Amino acid sequence: MDLKSSYLVIVDRSIKGADSDIQSSLHEHAAFHAYHAFESLGGAFCASVNASYPRGSHKKKLNKFVKEARRYRNSFHYEIARLAIILASTRNETLYPRESLSQSYISPRDSIDIISAARLVKSVKGVCNRVQRFL
What we know:
This protein is mainly alpha-helical and about 140 residues long. The chain is built from five helices and two strands. Helix content is about 70%, strand content about 5%. Helix 2 packs parallel to helix 5. The longest helix is centred in the first third of the chain and has 22 residues, at about 25-50.
C-alpha cells in the first residue's frame, strides 16, 4: 500500500470511530477522532502532491497541510485553514485534564459538549469528502 492510501485508511477508520463515539456519547473521543482524521487527511494530501509531511509535531503537520492546500488554491483550502485552527485548539483539551481558573481541573469529557463534537465531526467529514475527490 502506498503512503497516500495508508493515510486514507486512517482517515476512514478515524471517521468511523468518531461516528461510533457520538452514538455512544463519548463526545471528547469523537472530537479527538475527528482531529486524527483531519491530521491524517493532511498526510494523504501531502503524499498526493509529493510534499513531505512532518513526523511528530502536531502543529507542524497542521501547518504543512494548510500551506500545501493553499499552494494548490483548491476550493477547500479556506475550510482546511479554518478547521486547522479549531482542531489545534481542541486536540489537547479532548485528551488531558486542564486546570481551570478556580484551580480545579476540567475533565476532557467536560471540554466539549455532544452537539459541538457532532458539528466538528460533520465538518471534518465534509472536508474529508471534498479532499478525497481531489486526490
